[in-house]
Amino acid sequence: MAKSGWKNHAYELFKKKTGKEVDLTETVEHAEKSVMEKAANKWLQVKWQLSMTINISWGEEVAGYADIIDTPSIPDCNIFQPGGILDIRIRFFNLTSSDDGVTDFRCAFLKFGSVQTDGPFDLCFMTGRVSPFHDISTLKEFTYALEDGKQGLKQWALKEPFNYYALVDGLRKLPDACTSLDYNSYITYSVTDDKNERHLFRFRLVGEGDHDKAKLTLEEQAKPWDVGRPDVELPSGNYLADKLLSVSRSTCYLKLQTQVRNVGVDGLKDSWKNPCIAWDEEECPWSDLANIALTQRIPKDAAERAHYSFSTLPEGVAIATMDGMESYADLVVALEKVLTSSTRTKIPDDPLLTNPEPEMTTYLISIETGYHMYAGTNATVEVILIGTYGRTPKLILDKNIHTDFNRASKGSYYIQAPAVGEIKLVKIYPHRGTMFTEWYMRSMVIFDLEGRKVYDFPCYSWITTEITLLKGQVTFAHKETDPDLLLTRRKLLAEKRKMIPWCIRDGLPSRVGYLKYKDLPRDLQFPKQREWEKKLILVETAVKLKLHRFMTMFDPFDSFRDFLAMTKVLEISDIATAITDRKNWKRDEEFGREMLAGFHPLLIRRCSHPLESFPVTDEMLKHSLDRGKTLHEEMEAGHVYILDYSVMEGVPRRSDSNPKYLANPLCMLYVKNNGRLVPIAIQLEQRPGKDNPIWTSSDRKIDWLFAKMWVKSADTHMHCLSSHLFRAHFVTEALAISTMRNLPSVHPVFKLLIPHLNCTIAVNTTGIEVLLQGEDSIFQKLLAVSGSELDFIRSAYRSFHWDDMNIPKDLAKRGVEDPDLLPRYWYRDDSLMLWESILEFVSRVMNIFYSTDDDVRADEELQHWMKENRERALPQWNGRDNGVPGNIENLSQLNEILTMIIFSASCFHAAINFGQIDYYAFGPNYPGSMKQPPPTTKGVTNMETILKTLPTKADQALSIAFAYYLSSYSKEETFLGDFPDAHFVEPEVREAQKWFKTDLNRISDEIKRRNMDLEIPYTYLLPENIPNSVSV
């Protein structure tokens, strides 16, 4: 704000008119009052409080936003978060007259927050640097003077030099606009920081324009009590109000500034708290706190106006009041009550006042509720439409003798309301319900019947409190020119960041900052129906299994037949039956098939050279290699592969009274001349030695079978903790949080990804509670690393790279991309078809909204999203670069990243999740933790040894129940290629979605044709079997 050239000559004029010397100290200090004076003042205050009511329809109220600067000087008081966006309301009014053309004190009440009730922080402002009153006595004198008109003001001004000064300083004549003035708040606030240091602060509003223009000239200062109109005819009596009518089309701006005074060792001085004394601006300079943008005019209807309470304060903030004086906040309220009830009612029919009726139109508002349980409501629902010409009052959506907003319903309402032009925003207010006030809204469509326009407002959210909806069309922040839309966009993102906090964990992907599922925001929780459905599956499964030989549940199995009998308690799939049929599970070719087309086909990699840690010799494999070549020659030819479980080494095992065991094996596999993959050598620990023999298929059958069981046990742990919990769940959750925090609902990347991120935070939060927390958690019972599961995942995260999520790159990195060298790898073949289809779909959608690479680089929200993915979602571990990019350089890279996320959340998770019951159902084929240590000598294993080592009946029952639970689809599941929620409203996107569905049908047909020739079909990547998101 430029330094003012205007000067207040009041003290010189006062001396000239009265002949009295001016003692400035006496004019601003309050004198001690007698008991009678105090009693009289108290009575007057009570009388005003009880007998008068504030007329809240007085003046003009506008709504907008406060954009808090990044480095506010004000001490932390919770409400002014750096970079935050706050809803605000400001009521502008003249202090004494309803005629804007009259010279008057101009006032402004500012409310932070969109609520109409008191608080959370309201500020009062008035033109002039000092308040005309500081207690009830001086307030009484000031109000009586105002009510008595010119003569009363003259007597009051000439009574004390300070009165004259305050009158000259505060009066404004014919300002250009309410927003061109500067306003001061005379209340002094106090806050104590975290260092126990006390700070005082004051506020002011600074408008745009020449602030001196409306101040009194020297000639006018000589008779400041002449407060009539400078011009009897012009301007109109509500010209200031008329200018505020245009804020929806032409945003008005102000600055909110603060003065801060640090309280020293000498303590508070009364003069610092005195509203009649301005603080020295050199000692306490003004600094910007927020940029104020006013974008919407509030209708005159009293029901739409806000109530202001200047004594309702944020936590930690107090009003610093002069010793023995009333709170200045209470004085302001008293002043408004007095003037509302008296002076302002004197000129209700001023011919210069105009109040034209707004142009009306008819809106047809259609609302669709969700199909979830409890998605309906019997609450009264109100909406406000905000457009380029203003906003409507609250519109009640209600039909007489009709139940509105039932679950899974569409309701339409014809509403007569002021025309607001092009609709930009919708605010929804649920309230006054008797039950079920929380409800789920899918979308709102508004038809302007007279303007012949249709507006789509996707929601897909639970309505628990006031909510603001943006239109469904894709928009970009860096291209947005409407301040209302831009600031709303930023505010909604700030609210989401507050609602979805990060929990940063050392050595792990970050997760949501809520420990308990019940604490999650409603939109992050499961639909109730899904919660109950999953619990019912788990309970029914557990009951069936416990009824099976209940008396011996905690004993070892007596034979493999007992394991098989337990699987038959449930209705298992044809795949599970085929695995156990004719003891198929014991065959080496079945072992190899499962590593390529089972439920965990992710670890196999090509072995192109001998390993020092796994010294397999030609002699050991003389009966295994069927091409007549040496092992080294077979390696060079691409026929030798490896399973390496070294990531588990060093992770503590359970060693209490009920110890559990887990090997860290290496398993070598070989592609036979007939194209079948088989295991040929197994070493159960990473370091070779005499107590760590290499087992081969030439060993005794029972020894070789037992060695394969130990590999499968290790594979179980890698599947549960590394591939499934870490890669599919933790990584996807981290990316989901970043997406929800950084991309608004109108961003194309948010719209594209959100169907693939739904429920992931919920399932992970419940999963951590059920799987990891406490002695009764599932992994504590099933795994050998119970209590060290996160250490296991940290070990896996150390080797994680961003490109692991890129299927073509991952396959190439593992050396398994060539179907001629490694045939029958159905996971690879199906994944590549799906990858290409998803990539093409993503490219078609993104090309609609990004024309060039420059468009991608210019998208600040997109770049911030990627930056947070790198720095917070998937942070580096001990300085190791995990390859997560910090920015996106071009459209091709964007398409690849989005394909990675969609594939990981849908296809990758489906491949390793929904087949669990097929393989875990029969314990000997895929055991969890072992009850005995791994063997160190050949030739000593027998059936009794194996049965004592395998899980007990109780552990196996729990394993089956949990696998059955995880492998079950929800009735509400949506699958890849299904788009039940219309997040995109653009027809071009819908065409791309149709293409995608058609292409997925083509892939499905190809997979089914191939499966017809397979003994055990690979069905986990059939598109119709792939849920859209990690939701279980």
From TrEMBL:
PROSITE patterns recorded: LIPOXYGENASE_2 (PS00081), LIPOXYGENASE_3 (PS51393), PLAT (PS50095)
Swiss-Prot/TrEMBL cofactor(s): Fe cation
Assigned keywords, A-Z: Calcium, Cytoplasm, Dioxygenase, Iron, Lipid metabolism, Metal-binding, Oxidoreductase
Annotated cofactor note: Binds 1 Fe cation per subunit.
Pathway entry: Lipid metabolism
CC terms in the record's Gene Ontology section: cytoplasm
Binding-site positions, Fe cation: 724, 729, 909
Source species, domain of life: Eukaryota
Subcellular compartments: Cytoplasm
GO terms under biological process: lipid oxidation
MF (Gene Ontology): heme binding; iron ion binding; oxidoreductase activity, acting on single donors with incorporation of molecular oxygen, incorporation of two atoms of oxygen
Domain (Lipoxygenase): residue spans on this chain: 475-1032
Domain (PLAT): residue spans on this chain: 361-477
Family matches, as PANTHER family: LIPOXYGENASE
Official protein name in the record: Lipoxygenase
Species annotation: Potamilus streckersoni
